[in-house]
Design goal:
The protein has 427 residues and is mainly beta. It folds into three domains: 3-84, no CATH class; 110-294, Alpha-Beta Complex (Sulfite Oxidase, Chain A, domain 2), CATH 3.90.420; 303-424, Immunoglobulin-like (Sandwich). Helix content is 11%, strand content 29%. The protein has seven helices and 24 strands. The radius of gyration is 23 Å and the shape is globular. The two termini are 35 Å apart. The structure holds the ligand Nc1nc2c(c(=O)[nH]1)N[C@H]1C(S)=C(S)[C@@H](COP(=O)(O)O)O[C@H]1N2 and molybdenum atom. Molybdenum atom binds at residues 111, 157-159, 258-259.
């Protein structure tokens, strides 16, 4: 069987070819091959290896489990030169080698404005203040005694796919779409805390969320959203948040761009107008063609991408492939995903792999028989509101080319006759 993220045992006459694709793989890209008919007559199956005849490793050799030695290539990666220092940077998730919808905690992308900290939860406090009857300071213990919820949601940085506005400059799906994750988050609903403090949710139309890191990151969130599904979370995928992702407390704002998911959350203020902070006036605004800026574009619109095969990978042979990808919408559930193999002329509806959750990643699969000719693979998602993921040309017609944020255009991968897959743009 084949799967993305693994390079199949080399076939003699293809060794050179495989080595070439391995060299290409340094950016986290991998080669993938057609299914295992070659196993026939393979003598390896007849030999008993050491692991079939000897004693294995004892339990708890790793008190906290680790991935296989053979999976070392599956890593978060930084894009060298993207930012001046690695404390104000991004590490991208290796979407090309991931399955299903849940992001393993160790592969969750990172985006820090001023580095990450491992904050002592015993010292950490959350203050709720502003237009409330009773301002309060909570310890972690206080928070964890309140009724909690667990919800699966995606988080996407508003700048994800931002490099694609101008032209194609990024080789792999890790770098085009890797500021994306989907985890189960556990915490107390922000609505519960607002009620606990007697917040004035009529006149207090906004809340401000503030992080405890040196970047002083602050974002305004509309009260409807705060009362709806926002969570003050400590849990991620069944354990405490990882330090890089805001341990011990982060805000989860489903459907909304990553910057509002304030990490190392220390303060919530209730107010009657937006704060117009740095991260909502100078950054995370969209430059429109007429020179004006669009502000407070928070929702991550419906989007999808084929993760396998994708840029940087190589198809080693003609034949059957399972084309797989992810779809998501900040407005709710995914209704349908269509896939094209000829650059958008013909579309087939992909098989959606459940569960289909609101504001969560949704996995799709579709069978494809590659005939060895050049092809252009695209996916197009439609969400439950009926919104259809746009082409890049449609987006540029309204938004221009000078944006950074909120690019949810259809992604095209070109498969060359050589089997090499690369990033291209189609109108
Ligand atoms: N306190 C604080 N919160 C923050 C940030 C930060 O630098 N400091 N970065 C924001 C941005 S821009 C994004 S996209 C997400 C990234 O979350 P992650 O690092 O868990 O992937 O966190 C947001 N919350
Ligand atoms: Mo972000």
């Amino acid at each position: 069987m084949t799967r993305a993220g693994r390079i199949l045992p080399a076939v003699e006459d293809r060794r050179g070819f495989l080595r070439k694709s391995l060299a290409l793989a340094s950016g986290g890209a991998v080669a993938i091959a057609a299914s295992g008919a070659r196993a026939q007559g393979d003598p390896a199956i007849l030999k008993l290896p050491a692991h079939s005849t000897g004693l294995g490793q004892p339990v708890a050799a790793h008190p906290y489990g680790l991935p296989s030695e053979y999976e070392k290539n599956l890593q978060r990666r930084e894009s060298p030169g993207l930012t001046r220092v690695s404390q104000a940077s991004v590490s991208f998730a290796p979407l090309q080698g991931m399955f299903g919808i849940i992001t393993p905690s160790g592969l969750h992308f990172e985006r820090h404005h001023q580095g990450w900290w491992d904050i002592d939860p015993r010292q950490h406090r959350l203050m709720l203040m502003g237009m409330v009857r009773q301002p309060k300071v909570y310890t972690m213990d206080d928070l964890m005694r309140l009724p909690s919820v667990s919800r699966i949601h995606f988080i996407e940085c508003g700048a994800n796919s931002g490099m694609e506005w101008n032209n194609v400059s990024v080789p792999t799906v890790q770098y085009t779409h890797g500021m994306l994750a989907c985890c189960e988050f556990t915490g107390v609903r922000l609505a519960t805390l607002l009620e606990d403090c007697g917040a004035d949710t009529k006149k207090g139309r906004y809340v401000l969320a503030e992080g405890a890191d040196g970047s002083g990151l602050t974002r305004t969130i509309a009260m409807e959203r705060a009362l709806d599904d926002a969570i003050v979370a400590w849990g991620m995928n069944g354990e405490m948040l990882r330090p890089e992702n805001g341990y011990p407390l982060r805000l989860v704002v489903p459907g909304v761009q990553g910057v509002s998911w304030v990490k190392w959350l220390r303060r919530i203020e209730v107010g009657d107008q937006p704060w117009y902070t740095r991260e909502e006036t100078l950054h995370y605004i969209d430059l429109m063609p007429d020179g004006r800026h669009r502000q407070f574009t928070s929702i991550q619109e419906c989007k999808s991408v084929i993760t396998s095969p994708s840029g940087g990978q190589t198809l080693l042979d003609k034949g059957h492939y399972n084309v797989s990808g992810l779809a998501w919408s900040g407005r709710g559930r995914i209704r349908r995903v269509d896939v094209s193999f000829d650059g958008g002329r013909n579309w087939r509806t992909a098989r959606i792999e459940g569960p289909v959750l609101s504001k969560a990643l949704t996995r799709f699969n579709i069978s494809w028989t590659w005939d060895g000719a050049p092809a252009i693979l695209q996916s197009r998602a439609i969400d439950e509101t009926g919104y259809v993921q746009p082409k890049i040309a449609q987006l540029r017609a309204i938004r221009g080319t000078r944006s950074i944020y909120h690019n949810n255009a259809i992604q095209s991968w070109r498969v060359a006759a050589s089997g090499e897959v690369g990033n291209v743009q189609m109108d």
